[in-house]
Amino acid sequence: MTSLQVGLLSIPVLFILLFLRLPVAFVMLVVGMSGFAYLNSPESALSITAQTIYSNFANYSLIVVPLFVWMGFIAFYSGLSSKIYDATYKLMGSLPGGLAMATIGACTAFGAICGSTTATAATMSAVALPEMKRYNYDRSFSTASIAAAAILGVMIPPSVIFILYGVATGESIRLLFLAGIIPGILLMSLFMLTACLKSIRDPALGPPGPSIPLADKLKALFSGGMEVIFIFLVVIGGLFAGWFTPTEAGGVGAFATLVVSLARGSLSWKGFSNSLSDAIRLSAMIMFLSAAAFVYSRFLAITGLPSAVATLAVEIPFPPVVVIISVLAVYFVLGLFIDGLALILMTTPIFYPVATTLGFDPIWFGVIVVLALGMGVITPPVGANVYVVAGVAGGINVMDIFKGVWPYLFAIFLCIAILIVFPEIALFLPELAKKNL
After folding, report:
1. How many CB atoms sit inside 10 A of residue 396's CB?
2. Directed axis angle between helix 160-169 and helix 269-303, to 10°?
3. In this predicted structure, what is the pLDDT of residue 360?
4. Which pTM does this prediction carry?
5. CB neighbourhood size of 384 (10 A)
6. SS3 sequence, 58-97?
7. Which residues of 33-72 are buried (b: 16+ CB within 10 A; e: fewer)?
8. Residues 152/120, Cβ–Cβ less than 8 Å
9. Which of 38, 74, 194, 255 is deepest in the core (most CB within 10 A)?
10. pLDDT tens for residues 256-265?
11. Is the CB of residue 437 less than 8 Å from the CB of residue 246?
12. What pLDDT is recorded for position 223?
């Protein structure tokens, strides 16, 4: 077989092994090493694998992963999430579907200090579901709102998926973070509109909460919102101004979150210890996944498959936007079965050259890919966010949650369509940041 045929054959082999429920990182590592061994020799496969894994763990850019992960766990164990929810609840709770809208706003705010969609889902489920139950919110509607809104945890920076996309492609993590802000706010607005319209159409789904005096709203906003705004402005403001790199921003963000938590007296020694152990465990998983993906991507590179796919995409008689929509459809389908972190590392070596060869901005492409991956965490059979919310809620069938997320899926489709028609929405802040340098 030619090297290109070997590269093509590796893809179905990869997915067959994944559907057999084998660990993603080990599958990519074994397939990549086997490919190297077939095309060259077993000795060269071991040598290249060792070099790739070492260079991955020695990559300075990846230090940002454990820093931002720890930042999110500090916020979780210090109870910042409950303060955030209290602020958004008092601001919007009296509207139709107000508690769902408040939860969506809280997920957005929590996403500013936590780059994980599942962590956002678990945290907001614990905080918001009791209030929704108290005001007789429909169980399917309330749980689906949380599962969908948790996607905002990876759109609003800091985002682990943006970091991995940046490392895999060589694009600026700083610009990717900035590019996710306005689309994240747009998606939040579409989610809120969806929740409000559903509640207006069927008031039993999300009855309004009690009216809150203006003074109490301002007090809740100051006590719960200001802390998150402070952390967000320190991290993203510093990145935008060019005061520090994304890696330094991770250190500053973790330190700022720790200072705020200690100043509030809400972080116990046990919570601090748990935040470290959880951050180490999750970071180790992400780093090993990244190392295995780099081995597989290097194997694909020597087969010539990525460049062949990019050339084919240019030569086929379809407009570039049709090709990109087809790529997003592939992400959506694969996202039904494969975790987003693994999927972006597996597919970036193939689809990134396609997007750049067709003339699309790679920063913009990263944003819409993250949006497409977000659909995978709320759709069956994987639907990680749905299972997390169901586990916290207890006593609800996961299929009831899946039924409730469809209106939010349409909101994501609409958001992607808007970004395809108006890419400037995602590129405005990155272009502004470039001018300020």
Report:
1. 16
2. 30
3. 92
4. 0.83
5. 17
6. CCHHHHHHHHHHHHHHHHHHHCHHHHHHHHHHHHHCCCCC
7. bbbbbbbeeeeebeebbeebbeebeeeeebebbbbbbbbb
8. yes
9. 74
10. 889 888 887 8
11. no
12. 66
